[in-house]
Amino acid sequence: MLSGRRFRVEFTDEQAEFAERIGSVSRAVWNTGLAQRREYRRRGAWINYREQAHELVDAKEEHAWLKEVPGHCLQQALIDLDEACRRHGTFRVRWRSTRRWAPSFRFPEGSKMAVEKLNRRTWRVKLPKLGYVKFRGSRSLDGETIRSATVSRDGGRWFVSFLVDDLMTTPEEHLVPGSAVGVDRGVAVAVATSDGDLIDRQFVTAGERRRTVVLQRKLSHTAKNSKNRTKIKAALAKLRTAERHRREDFCAQTAHRLAHANAAVVYEDLKTKQMTRRAKPVEDPDHPGHFLPNGAGSKSGLNRSILGKGWYRFEQSLTSVARYTGTRVVKVPAAFTSQRCSVCRHVDPKSRESQAVFRCIHCLRPAEHADVNAAKNILAAGLAVTACREAATPASVAVTSTQEPAGNREELLLQPV
Ligand SMILES: [Zn+2]
């Protein structure tokens, strides 16, 4: 199975400088290639990877600086550009700017890369033109075949990511056959399961939050391009990186726990991207050019909470670990899961007393945590889907008839905790 392995690189000063240069040359190749593609599209024509690669060979004769860096990385940039344009459309693909794009480049020929262990902590790999690159061997690469290596910078640190084939296969059957769990992802609690577990973690401490506010205030008083500004920005980036790492850890650990214990994991198909759109401005009909309150503040707060829990990251972690455990991952439409009673199936928004409490107004059973109730509904929906998969109509068709009224779930999420 193909998998990724990421290691912290320990470059020498010259290597770091050279890596920075490879990054900027690949960026130039990407931007030139994109400009050319857009130019062709405006005239109603196309240019593909093959032609661009030929032109790159010609350009190398003219510009010596293109020849200094590994040619494979530049070809790879053009291949990536080709794929991005096919997938998203030539005019939607972004330019790579020095400010918004962190340097990253790929060496495609993994089979020719020699990786060796130097001591308990350090490994090294020989990369074209960069020479021997040391990295921290935080896990063993023994018995794995390397397909490619990507070098990238994240803040001030360099990393190498290997695409490896670990020669494992997905098991035919899960270790605990027949087990299944429903998962509700929420804002107040990150993950609630149908077994009644509430899994959550704070990613930022109170002290870090205070420090962020102080730093942001300081930042607003600094002069542009000043040394002080750079320093404060670096400190802010460090705080954000710590938060991101904790979130990634949380998602990976939760996914690991759920996938190892269950042969099927069901979760709601939430359109995270649509849900986190910005609130539309509402123009005041009496005063053209003026705008009415549109709830943008609370909407952006909700967006932050959704993105802050790493819902999408969790999906990715789950599908990734499911390949190793043989767990079936099932997505079900998010219709009425938060308003339906998991015992008598009665649907009423009034049953949801608050963000946390679900008290059925129909069957008068004891109150339950609202997210656990939702997780039970999700599990039931998932089991129904897997049971009649053969007869199932396409998901998009099935969704529309029972779709939860627009805005409902958001309104519920917005209620005070
Ligand atoms: Zn009920």
UniProtKB/TrEMBL annotation:
Pfam family membership, one: HTH_OrfB_IS605
Ranges in coiled-coil conformation: none
GO biological process: one example: DNA recombination
A GO MF term: DNA binding
Annotated keywords: DNA recombination, DNA-binding, Metal-binding, Plasmid, Transposition, Zinc
Highest rank taxon of the organism: Bacteria
Domain Probable transposase IS891/IS1136/IS1341: 170-278
Family: In the C-terminal section; belongs to the transposase 35 family.
Protein name as annotated: Transposase
Organism from which the protein derives: Mycolicibacterium fluoranthenivorans
